[in-house]
Predict the structure.
Amino acid sequence: MDAHTCMSCCGRDYRIIRLLGHGKGGYSYLVADGSELLVLKQIHHEPCSYYQFGDKMQSELNDYRKLKEIGIPMPVLLQADLEPERILKQYIPGPTAFELVLKDQMKPDYLRQVRGMCAKLYDAGLNIDYYPTNFIIQDDRLWYIDFECNAYQEQWDFEHWGVRYWSRTSEFLAAAEAGKE
């Protein structure tokens, strides 16, 4: 989509500025409404070999409520448009944790913050997607910008999976080389 394309959510048009990212659940765009920048996520139904979805839109909404309830720092969900499967949320500017690892600028405090999130999540029986593109740092505060969460499984928790991508490990460097930002 070019910068002049618009998408609507709940009957209101938003001008697309650029694609922010594409994940297993959808495409997230930086959009403008004339006065502020926001994120508009379009749910997609592309196949994913390693993940099974039910109702993606309802899952996003349910997951947001769960994560908000346990206190995970996330963008505010502003609107959900069920028919075109679009979510409008607060835009949090800043580098991703992935970008900071790539530039060798990861601070120990960011790892402390993600482990603080883990304590809340594990107590609630949940995991989130710990891949570092799902985290933004703004004013030294770590934000989880995805809404996905799943039932806790040790193999997918931070210490057994996510931490591999939070420093310049061989797994991180292979992902960076492959363009998995």
